[in-house]
Structure formats: C-alpha cells, structure tokens
Amino acid sequence: ETGVTQSPTHLIKTRGQQVTLRCSSQSGHNTVSWYQQALGQGPQFIFQYYREEENGRGNFPPRFSGLQFPNYSSELNVNALELDDSALYLCASSSSLGETQYFGPGTRLLVL
Amino acid sequence: GDSVTQMEGPVTLSEEAFLTINCTYTATGYPSLFWYVQYPGEGLQLLLKATKADDKGSNKGFEATYRKETTSFHLEKGSVQVSDSAVYFCALSDLGYQKVTFGTGTKLQVIP
Q1: Is B100 in the A-facing interface, judged by CB distances under 8 Å?
Q2: pLDDT, tens digit, for every residue of B70-86?
Q3: A1 - beta bridge partners?
C-alpha cells in the first residue's frame, strides 16, 4: 500500500511568484487536507477537500487555493508569494470524513 | 476555538529514562486526540490516538490516556531510546475530522 506522496520535496521561489504543490493520497483515500508548518511551530490547517469539493478552510487568505482531482490527488496553489509563506507544506489523506489523517513527507518552500 | 497546549522543550533524557510530555486541550464537544511524531527532515507520523474518554492509545512502547475530567492526554514511555529523538506533537480533531489542531511541539533528545 502506497502512502501519501508529495512533490516537489524542495522549492525556491521569489516574492510575488506563484507556486503549485502536489499531493497523491494514500490508496483508497478520498479526503485530502493541507497544512502549513512554519519553522519551530505546529502545522496550521489550510483547507480540506472531500470528493473534489472544498470541505472547510482555515484562516488563510484567498491567494491560497486548491483542487482535488477525480483520482483524489490534490494541488495547493499559492499566488503572490510573500516571505512569510516560507514553510513546510504538508498534505494529509484519510479514507473518508471522520477518519484519521495520515501525512506525507511535505514540500519545503523557501520564498526569497 | 479549539486549542492544544503542550510542554515546551527541548526535553533531554538519558537512554532508558522515563518520559512524560504533558498535553492539555480546549475543545467544544468530544474531540479525538492524537500524538504525532516528526523525525528530522521528515513529515508527521501518527504515533497513537484515542477517540473517547478513558481510552488509552499505545504504540511502540508509548502510551497516552484520554482524560476528559482534566482535559489532558499526556504522553509516556517507560524507557526511551536514542532512536526516539524527535519532535512530538499533541493534536485534536473536531467531530467532523475537518481539521487537526496541533500543539507547538516538544523536541525530545535522548542521549546515550
């Protein structure tokens, strides 16, 4: 059984650019959540997708957006990057709503 | 809103010492509680969970008991190993598992 995978592993962007991060959910999982983990902090919830629809959103601005595809993989898009967007971005999948979330290894984004 | 408070680190222990990492939470309703572990440079791994009051989660020698009366979920291990060195996150999930709310993490260093 393949776990949650994310790509790329590392990324460097400059302020004002746009970035797309990708996540493949664990086999059989239809729910994907995204989190931002700043250095030395716990992860913060960005949003969740369930069967291709957004199911909830944390306190992040609209320039953070996402998609979930029919195969339940997902993308996180961030527009107009700011220096404070530098963080580890984690994707988590679960077999359905109400089930335990399992995390991928993350994408480390550095904004210069 | 929901929140998790855990003891600040770093915690430094000698191998085979007893470990306790304190965690308390604030939540409406009856959340599920988790401990996640993050090894250097990696994503989060689920260590253990408990879904209702008085449940005990356990894994790899670690244990935590869901105490509703004290709103606590302290992590314990009887004898730590060098390989247990990592950052430990206490977390809770709301009823709908829409998101996981994390504490700020406790870094554990075990020395030989």
Answers
A1: yes
A2: 999 999 999 999 999 99
A3: none
